[in-house]
Design goal:
The chain is an alpha/beta fold. Helices cover 30% and strands 24% of the residues. The protein has a single domain, classed as Spore Coat Polysaccharide Biosynthesis Protein SpsA, Chain A. The two termini are 22 Å apart.
């Protein structure tokens, strides 16, 4: 199995007041670099494509300079789905699996990436996430409509991993129906393909608004130190 990881860093950071969240420092390192390094610890990933806007290419390339397996591709689209579609054109021809991750999720754990890859290998599609801790309400026009069963509510995170041929076919169907999804797994769901839900950790948050960064700093301090995989080059 050949695996390509696509890490999305092409957002416009409107909820961060225009400050590019990928470049903010977390624990002394840029958010984006931490996200990429988590995937470097997973040895079976063959390549890592970092998708950015053309205007950010030089800055992103500087942040990631020297990291193996990494290619920065300035092909960000207007939407998430378009960015992923553009990135697929750069994937190794022999890849059969794609793992898609938010560049703004720097606290993802390598072991959770591994678990998601394992689940996708078995059923074709898988996403990382956690069960909700809160009671969830459906609201319409400012009024509560219903209360879904909390035991069935899963909060989606990334990475989301798919068999590449199936993912491409699902994306083509979505395009033909003029559908554009904000979540990669929705492509599989819409095509009637199975997606496994892999339980991860609550600290795999997405840096979206200013208050997320200090929260991530606190969570980072509580994370276990990663150990180098057996046989791995200590200099990456």
């Amino acid at each position: 199995m050949m695996i390509s990881a696509i890490i999305l860093a092409a957002g416009n950071s409107t909820r961060m007041g225009g400050v590019n969240k990928q470049f903010l420092e977390l624990g002394g390192e840029p958010v984006l670099r931490r996200s990429v390094e988590a995937f470097l610890w997973v040895q079976r990933i063959d390549e890592i494509l970092v998708v950015c806007r053309r205007a950010d290419w030089e800055a992103v390339d500087e942040i990631l300079h020297g990291l193996p397996k990494v290619r920065v591709v300035p092909c960000g689209g207007e939407t998430r789905q378009q960015s992923v579609e553009n990135a697929l054109g750069y994937v190794y021809p022999l890849s059969d699996t794609v793992a898609i991750h938010d560049g703004a999720r720097p606290l993802v754990r390598p072991e959770d990436i591994e678990k998601t890859l394992d689940a996708a290998e078995k059923c074709g599609g898988a996403l990382l996430g956690v069960m909700t801790k809160d009671t969830v309400k459906r609201v319409k026009d400012g009024m509560v409509v219903s209360t879904p069963d909390r035991s069935e509510i899963f909060c989606a995170q990334t990475p989301q991993v798919f068999r590449l041929a199936d993912y491409k076919a699902a994306m083509q169907r979505a395009k033909e129906q003029q559908l554009d999804f904000t979540d990669d797994a929705q492509l599989f769901e819409k095509a009637g393909l199975p997606v496994a839900a892999v339980i991860g950790h609550y600290d795999n948050i997405k840096i979206t608004t200013p208050e997320d960064l200090p929260a991530a700093e606190a969570m980072l301090a509580l994370q276990p130190q990663w150990e180098l995989p057996e046989g791995w080059d200590e200099d990456f």
